[in-house]
Each structure stands twice: as structure tokens, then as C-alpha cells.
């Protein structure tokens, strides 16, 4: 359904259920219809949806598009509400605060440091597969794609095994809140606040060789002073974001990659027989069906022209990276999984100053997870009809609820 706003931009009614079930077909129709659409956003408020590659890429790096919610028009945005101790994170910051906070945590995700994690990640992947191998099948999301990233990010932050809780439940309540049970989301936030407060207090008392201890030292050491100081809210929010994003996105990058291979037996056979081609494959999986189909919302600080449409200052802008990554104007045969294509240019891990901080870690974990899985179970297949798979009921994240598979082969 289409009519017009006062600015002349068509209003598009997007079928949310269709967008969840088959986003790539919906986005193909939207790209064909126009570069920018006036839609109802995930929070029920009006938003501008940008769907073509060049426009999305340009906007991702345009400083006129702010992440700071204070630049939203009053009443225009009603997204996820978190207490300041969790909300003062990089997803809500512009420079110079974004630059300062990102610099402090970036050292934990350098390629060299990430590469040193490859051996323990490989060891953990094999242990997880050992546990399910005798069963002849498993829900790979619950038994493998979920536990692997959470263990890695907890080790990076220094969360001891006995303190690790059900992060997946918290994540689900935040990403897909149930309007009928708002208390579940509130309880999740309270639980997270308690968890991070206790974890930071424990690290202050007994620091270790981990990222969180390093960040606490930066926060507490008066000799650091000046621009490199973190506020207490920034410290807590940074720990929250690293754990939340480092877990959430990698889980679904791995699971979506497995499903893409199960949907394409030729590509599954290719990677099983040529595991060396897994190097760099995470970028193609992130392009093909990444876990973040929409970039974090933006708010123009001035009127901005996008795709020939003037977007007023302060209104919500949604950049559809999932659509951009299937734009045939940028990618040849975009609906085909192709590990030989040019890896550069996809937007599945972001672009510009907000490029994914943990991209190197996500790539390494995905490569290791798939390498070990395919080596162990090269003949795996879905154990339910494809039509029975269910996606999380949100357009903000692209992730399965479960991924049941069965296998034959070397155990």
C-alpha cells in the first residue's frame, strides 16, 4: 500500500511477517520501487528506510547521521529503553565520545590478539562437537553456535565459568520483547544490571589478565586522566555492549552460515572438500544473510538528501544493510553464495567509524566453527522440513530460533 507524505515521498506499508520470513524478496521489491521509503519502524513510529547499496554505504559514513538519541525529534523515536549504566555505549555515541571510548577497547580486538585465540576456540569447538556426536543430531543453535561465542567473549572479558548465566534469554527479551509481558524485559534489565555491577566489583577486588580488568584500571587510575578516562556508566555500558554484541551477532552469523550451506549442497560440498576456502568465507556469509539486516538507527542533525529524497532533521533513519548486500547494482548474482567473489565492499559488518569492532573475532570464530563442524559432519542435513524453521520475530535481527540437524560421518 502506498500514499504520500507531505514531503512527497511515498509511504510504504511493509508486511512485517513477510520481512521476517523472507527479507531478501521483500527488499528486492523495495529496491525496485525506489531508494528510500517512508515506513513504520520497529518501534511503531514512522521512519525512513534506505534500501539501495550506494545510498546505504554513503549514509553509514556520513557524520550528519547521528547515533545520539538526543538528536531525535521529540516523540519521533521510542526504541529500546535502558538505564544509563547500560545505555552509555558506542551504539548511542558520536565523536568525540565515540572516538575516545572505542580507542580504549579496540586493542582487545586487534587481528594479532584475535589470532592468539584461534587455538582455544578450536579446542572448545571440538569439545562441543564431541558432546553431541553420539546423538546423531542436535539443535546446532543451542548446542554449538550459541555456546561457542559466549564462552569466547566471556573469556575475553574475564567472566569466570561459575558466573556465566543465561545470556541468550536476556538477549531474546531485549531484541524481541513480548508486548504482552513487559515485565520479562524489565526483569532481564534488572538481572543484567545486577550481573555487571557484581562482575565489575569482583574485578576491582581481584583484577585479572582480561579486557574488563584493563578497562577498570583505565577508569580508576587517576594518572590516566584527561580524555582517556571512562565514566562509571561508560565502563558498565562498554562491558554490556562487548558481551551482548559479541555474543548475539556471532551466534547468528554462524547459524545462518550453516543454514545457507544446508540450502546449497554444492557449496556445502565445496567447503567440506576444500576447507582452505573457509578463510575469508565469513565475509560472504555476512553479505549473504548476516545477523544485522538493519544498521543501528540514525537521526540526521540537519535536513539530508538521500536517494533524491529530503529527510528532515531528527527523524529516524533505518539503513537496510541486508538489502544493500543483495543489490544487483553492486554485487553480481547477489542471491548466490559465492566464495570466489570479491570480499570487499559488503556492509554486513558495517562501514565507516561504526564498523564492527569485533569483526576480526567474528570472522575467526565463524571460520573455526564451520571448519570443525564440516570436518566432523560433512554429510549433515536438516532434521525437519525447511518450512518448519522459525526466525526470531523481529526485523532488527536475523536469527533462527533453532537449527535442528542430523548427521552421518566421522564421529
Structural description of this entry:
- It contains 17 helices and twelve strands.
- The protein is mainly α.
- It has one domain: Cytochrome p450.
- The longest helix has 32 residues, at 232-263.
- The mean pLDDT is 88.
- InterPro entries: Cyt_P450, Cyt_P450_B, Cyt_P450_sf.
- It comes from Streptantibioticus parmotrematis.
- Belongs to the cytochrome P450 family.
- It holds the Pfam family p450.
Question: What does the secondary structure layout of this molecule look like, with pairings?
Answer:
Elements: E1 2-4, E2 10-12, H1 16-21, H2 23-33, E3 36-40, E4 46-50, H3 53-60, E5 65-66, H4 84-87, H5 97-106, H6 111-115, H7 118-132, E6 137-139, H8 140-145, H9 147-157, H10 167-175, H11 182-205, H12 211-220, H13 232-263, H14 265-273, H15 281-289, E7 299-300, E8 304-306, E9 309-311, E10 317-319, H16 321-324, H17 359-376, E11 381-382, E12 404-406
Parallel strand pairs: 4-10
Antiparallel strand pairs: 1-2, 3-4, 5-7, 6-12, 8-9, 11-12
Family: Belongs to the cytochrome P450 family.
Organism: Streptantibioticus parmotrematis
Protein name: Cytochrome P450
Low-confidence stretches: none
CATH superfamily: Cytochrome P450
Oligomer: single chain
CATH architecture, by name, is: Orthogonal Bundle
- Quickly count the domains: 1
| CATH class call | Mainly Alpha
| Termini Cα gap | 53 Å
Main pleated sheet: 3 strands, mixed
State the share of residues found in helices, binned by percent.
40-55%
Amino acid at each position: 500500500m502506498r500514499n504520500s507524505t507531505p514531503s512527497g515521498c511515498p509511504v510504504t506499508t511493509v508486511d512485517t511477517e513477510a520481512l521476517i520470513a523472507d527479507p531478501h524478496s521483500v527488499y528486492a521489491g523495495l529496491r525496485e520501487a525506489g531508494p528510500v521509503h517512508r515506513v513504520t519502524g520497529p518501534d511503531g513510529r514512522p521512519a525512513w528506510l534506505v534500501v539501495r547499496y550506494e545510498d546505504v554505504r554513503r549514509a553509514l559514513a556520513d557524520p550528519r547521521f547521528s547515533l545520539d538519541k538526543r538528536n531525535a525529534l521529540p516523540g519521533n523515536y521510542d526504541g529500546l529503553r535502558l538505564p544509563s549504566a547500560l545505555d552509555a555505549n558506542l551504539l548511542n555515541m558520536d565523536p568525540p565520545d565515540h572516538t575516545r571510548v572505542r580507542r580504549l577497547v579496540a586493542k582487545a580486538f586487534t587481528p594479532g590478539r584475535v589470532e592468539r585465540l584461534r587455538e582455544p576456540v578450536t579446542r572448545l569447538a571440538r569439545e562441543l562437537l564431541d558432546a553431541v556426536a553420539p546423538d546423531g543430531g542436535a539443535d546446532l543453535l543451542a548446542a554449538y553456535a550459541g555456546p561457542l561465542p559466549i564462552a569466547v567473549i566471556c573469556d575475553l572479558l574475564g567472566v569466570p565459568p561459575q558466573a556465566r548465566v543465561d545470556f541468550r534469554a536476556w538477549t531474546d527479551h531485549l531484541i524481541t520483547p513480548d508486548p504482552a509481558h513487559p515485565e520479562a524485559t524489565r526483569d532481564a534489565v534488572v538481572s543484567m544490571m545486577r550481573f555487571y555491577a557484581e562482575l565489575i566489583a569482583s574485578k576491582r577486588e581481584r583484577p585479572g589478565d582480561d579486557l574488563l580488568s584493563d578497562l577498570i584500571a583505565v577508569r580508576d587510575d587517576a594518572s590516566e586522566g584527561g580524555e582517556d578516562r571512562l565514566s562509571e556508566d561508560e565502563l558498565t555500558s562498554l562491558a554490556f555492549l562487548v558481551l551482548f554484541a559479541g555474543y548475539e551477532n556471532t551466534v547468528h552469523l554462524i547459524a545462518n552460515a550453516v543454514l545457507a550451506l544446508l540450502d546449497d549442497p554444492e557449496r556445502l560440498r565445496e567447503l567440506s572438500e576444500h576447507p582452505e576456502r573457509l578463510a575469508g568465507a565469513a565475509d560472504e556469509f555476512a553479505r549473504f544473510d548476516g545477523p544485522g539486516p538493519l544498521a543501528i538507527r540514525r537521526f540526521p542533525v540537519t535536513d539530508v538528501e538521500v536517494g533524491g529524497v529530503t529527510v528532515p532533521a531528527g527523524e529516524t533513519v533505518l539503513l537496510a544493510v541486508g538489502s544493500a548486500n543483495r543489490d544487483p547494482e553492486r554485487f553480481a548474482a547477489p542471491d548466490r553464495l559465492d566464495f570466489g567473489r570479491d570480499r570487499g565492499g559488503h556492509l554486513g559488518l558495517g562501514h565507516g567509524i561504526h564498523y564492527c569492532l569485533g569483526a576480526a573475532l567474528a570472522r575467526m570464530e565463524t571460520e573455526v566453527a564451520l571448519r570443525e563442524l564440516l570436518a566432523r559432519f560433512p554429510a549433515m542435513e536438516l532434521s525437519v522440513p525447511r518450512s518448519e524453521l522459525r526466525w526470531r520475530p523481529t526485523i532488527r535481527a536475523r536469527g533462527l530460533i533453532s537449527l535442528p540437524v542430523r548427521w552421518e560421518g566421522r564421529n
